[in-house]
Design brief:
The complex is a heterodimer of chains A (about 375) and B (about 160). Chain A is mainly α. In chain A, the strands form 2 sheets. A two-stranded antiparallel sheet of chain A has the order 1-4. Chain A has a two-stranded antiparallel sheet with strand order 2-3. The longest helix of chain B has about 30 residues. The relative contact order of chain B is 0.14. In chain B, the strands form 2 sheets. A 4-stranded mixed beta sheet of chain B has the order 4-1-7-8. In chain B, strands 3-2-5-6 form a 4-stranded antiparallel beta sheet. Classes of the chains: A mainly alpha (about 375), B alpha+beta (about 160). At the A-B interface, helix 6, strand 1, helix 12, helix 13 and helix 14 of A face helix 1 of B.
């Protein structure tokens, strides 16, 4: 009975992870892709996406859930890249330049996001999601009208033909894979971008170290119970804002790393799916709204991308249309988020219900029918 | 007094951080700025120097290229300070020189016959209407939507907003 209960608990805890693993493994054979190809693709995508997903961890530690507001940081990174391309700063210096341009913008946007979320405690996720839409409008106004008219853009190749506003597609040839190509390690048939992985490793070490600092401990205290943390003298609102600012700054850097690997930027839409993708990856990795770790990041990125790699070809092979696989990919991405949130809500309600039952049980055990407060 | 001192110290640290921040930005701009060097091997219009009949030219540590009279090629470089090494096929003579490109100049025309003849300056600004560097068809188009590989709408400007009722 206990073993059955444990299995049930494990399945409910890691439902998304299990579903993804099973579906991905089942899709590998019909896709017809070689294992070497899939592994190489996974290595590339791990380097491309892990930083962005790690950016989600600190707000979860601070009890603010999945930070859909990280899109704000992605927009800041994109603005930095636009200026790097405009001024013709190439190579890894161009990426560092873009990050340094994006940093103050992401700090400012993170502060706004944190302040707004403090006004909407308990509803941070939906608030961040809608805030991202709002800031995206301002970003579009800035890139479409301000750049080239108010702020001079010297590189006419990136301007729209009317003379102001940035083109829909920004070719980032000067900075394309600049971090990845600094040191490419060849291991058999695989190429590993050492510097990109070193940056990700440094971030992981930072996260582990940060959790042990006073601020990190404060964040965890705030995440567990804001009222208790407040009573203990922790500045709750300030701590929450700092968590969001760090997350937004990391998202800015993560978006630069992501786009340098892609090699081109959809000026008006590259940031749209950043939050969704990162959240889906983290949830697929076995994390929840309240609990996440570095291991969840890597498991999630590997599983989600393994699915992305094999699903179009599996769809082609099984249904005769690659579009089925593409639709499946979208469906599974959004589905992972929905399933995870539903499971989280269900578990929260069940835990609350169990707690109430426990209280009632304790009260009746005392022979007092009026309740446990007596 | 102690409080003021602490305040001043904090201000000093912040000021240093701002200076370091700006210094890194400027350093990245100086060392990462990309220039295009057009390597030219043509006669002077006034006949003051003649194109070189066969040579190899190497910019920095890039791969060297062979040039014959009338040839023109380009080299992409980052940063301002560079070296050029010219080896003449006729007598095996090697000419080496260092030069500094103006920061604001994206493209310069470097005349190798001028360099070999010892005429200074041997490079001059070259301005053209840049070819499309960010055209929709340039580079691999990949969607960022859930890791997809299908290109989104490559038209200029953002897609029209969807009206929600």
């Amino acid at each position: 009975m206990s073993a059955k209960k444990n299995i049930g608990r494990f399945v409910s805890e890691y439902a998304v992870l299990i579903i993804f693993t099973v579906v991905t493994l089942a899709a590998i054979a019909p896709s017809g892709l070689s294992i070497n190809y899939i592994i190489q693709e996974l290595i590339t995508r791990l380097g491309r996406n892990s930083f962005l997903v790690i950016a989600l961890l600190l707000p979860i530690y601070a009890g603010m859930g999945l930070n859909f507001g990280m899109t704000l940081g992605a927009m800041a990174g994109q603005i930095g890249l636009i200026f790097a391309v405009n001024w013709g700063v190439a190579g890894w210096q161009g990426l560092v330049f873009a990050i340094f341009i994006g940093l103050p913008i992401s700090v400012f946007l993170g502060w706004i996001c944190g302040a707004v979320m403090n006004k909407a405690k308990g509803r941070e996720m939906v608030t961040g999601y809608i805030l991202a839409f709002f800031i995206s409008g301002i970003y579009q106004f800035f890139v479409l009208y301000v750049l080239g008219s108010v702020i001079p853009i010297g590189n006419s190749a990136i301007l729209l033909s009317r003379g102001y506003g940035i083109r829909n597609t920004l070719n980032m040839e000067p900075v394309r894979q600049a971090f990845d190509s600094i040191l490419m390690l060849r291991l058999g048939p695989f190429s590993i971008p050492v510097v990109t992985f070193a940056i990700i490793a440094a971030l992981c070490i930072f996260i582990v170290w940060f959790k042990k600092t006073k601020l990190g401990q404060d964040m965890r205290a705030v995440g567990q119970d804001m009222a208790v943390a407040e009573a203990a003298g922790i500045p709750v609102e300030k701590t929450r804002i700092i968590a969001i600012i760090i997350s937004t700054v990391l998202a800015c850097i993560g978006q630069v790393i992501f786009l340098q690997n892609m090699g081109n930027m959809m000026t008006y839409s590259s940031h749209d799916q950043t939050g969704f993708f990162a959240v889906a990856a983290l949830l697929v990795g076995g994390a929840s709204v309240t609990r996440a770790g570095i291991l969840n990041v890597f498991v999630g990125v590997v599983l989600l991308h393994a699915m992305f790699i094999v699903s179009p070809l599996a769809g082609q092979s099984l249904f005769g249309s690659a579009m089925i696989g593409e639709y499946f990919r979208q469906f599974i991405g959004y589905g992972a988020i929905a399933l995870s949130l539903v499971l989280y809500a269900w578990k929260s309600r069940k835990a609350a219900s169990d707690a109430r039952s426990g209280l009632r049980g304790g009260a009746s055990g005392n022979g007092n029918g009026t309740g446990g407060q007596a | 007094v102690k409080a003021i001192s602490l305040k001043n110290r904090r201000l000093l640290v912040r000021s240093i951080l701002v200076v370091v921040y700006i210094a890194v930005l400027v350093l990245m701009l100086l060392t990462g700025k990309r220039h295009t060097i057009l390597i030219d091997n043509k006669d002077a219009e006034d006949g003051s120097y003649l194109a070189i009949d066969g040579m190899s030219v190497q910019i920095d540590k890039q791969e060297s290229s062979e040039y014959y009279p009338g040839d023109r090629d380009k080299a992409m470089v980052n940063g301002q300070k560079h070296t050029i090494r010219v080896e003449l096929f006729s007598d095996g003579k090697i000419v080496e020189s260092s030069f500094t490109l103006p920061l604001g100049q994206d493209m310069v025309l470097l005349s190798v016959p001028k360099l070999v003849a010892g005429i200074a300056p041997y490079f001059e600004p070259f301005t053209i209407q840049l070819e499309q560097a960010s055209a929709p068809d340039a580079g691999p188009l990949q969607s960022t939507q859930f890791g997809g590989d299908t290109p989104p709408n490559p038209e200029e400007g953002p897609p029209a907003p969807v009206l929600v009722q």
